[in-house]
Amino acid sequence: MVTSKFPLGRFSHLSLAQKLMYLGILITLFWLFIALFAPILQGIGFLQDPTDLLSNIPGESPSLRHWFGTNVRGYDVFSRTLLGSQAALKVVFLATFLSMAIGVPLGLVSGYLGGKVDKILLFFMDTIYTIPGLLLSVTLAFILGRGILNVAIAVSIAYIPQYYRIVRNHTTSVKNELFIEAAKAMGATPTRVLSRYLFLNVIQSVPVVFTLNAADAILVLGGLGFLGLGLPEEVPEWGHDLKEALPDLSTGIWWTTLFPGMAMTSMVVGLSFIGEGISELFNPTLRNKR
């Protein structure tokens, strides 16, 4: 009885997916903390200026002065690795919110109205969906140019069809329910039906797609940065730092690739764990099976 009251005892009754979800939340909160409080950490001297290369020895191995060492240009790897979370979170959440803000309303309207509107939207979304997401993002990033907003738009386009298809399919199955027919019989306008009666019933799967898309967007951003199509060079970004560090491996400088790569991997894994846990919470059949 004593152990059952201990807070950690509650975790023994959780499934593996739920335990991983809490671990993912901790990882994501860590990077959110770093991104939000990085200016304060830099002000108190805990983080060095990520653009300062004149006061450091190029290619210095990890030490007490430079925990993650320096790269061949003299940048402090520790500060650039932690401050890289700012660019990642800005682009990722902006891209996923843009895709969700476009895909969800289009899915609601398409599924509810049907007819020619549904066919036209479905054709365009299927066309976008057939194009590989990374290839589409690379093409748009090349056209739009560098910058937080431009990269976010380039990344978000590939995720719009996913929100559209999920919301449209749910709307199509729910719009014929009795409570929808009753609302229309009472004089509810299509806008009111969509916003009040349909939206909350079809939005349940969106958080799962949101977290998984956020994890994928980090990899896409890293790929764009590696190709030189991401953010400006002076902005700390994991993909760009990995691109510059790739030639260092042949000279024995391993720390310039290890730490940015671990940071990117940890954020992707954390968001993926959250998505798996949320998927189980919203799927009673999967939860009961496990």
From TrEMBL:
One of its GO terms (cellular component) is plasma membrane. It is a multi-pass membrane protein. Residues 85-275 form the ABC transmembrane type-1 domain. Keywords: Cell membrane, Membrane, Transmembrane, Transmembrane helix, Transport. The chain crosses the membrane at residues 20-41, 91-114, 134-160, 206-232, 252-274. It is found in: Cell membrane. Pfam families: BPD_transp_1 (PF00528). GO terms for biological process: transmembrane transport. It comes from the Bacteria. CDD domains: TM_PBP2. SUPFAM superfamilies: MetI-like. InterPro entries: BP-dependent_transpt_permease, MetI-like, MetI-like_sf. Belongs to the binding-protein-dependent transport system permease family. This is ABC transporter, oligopeptides. The lineage of its organism: Bacteria, Bacillati, Cyanobacteriota, Cyanophyceae, Oscillatoriophycideae.
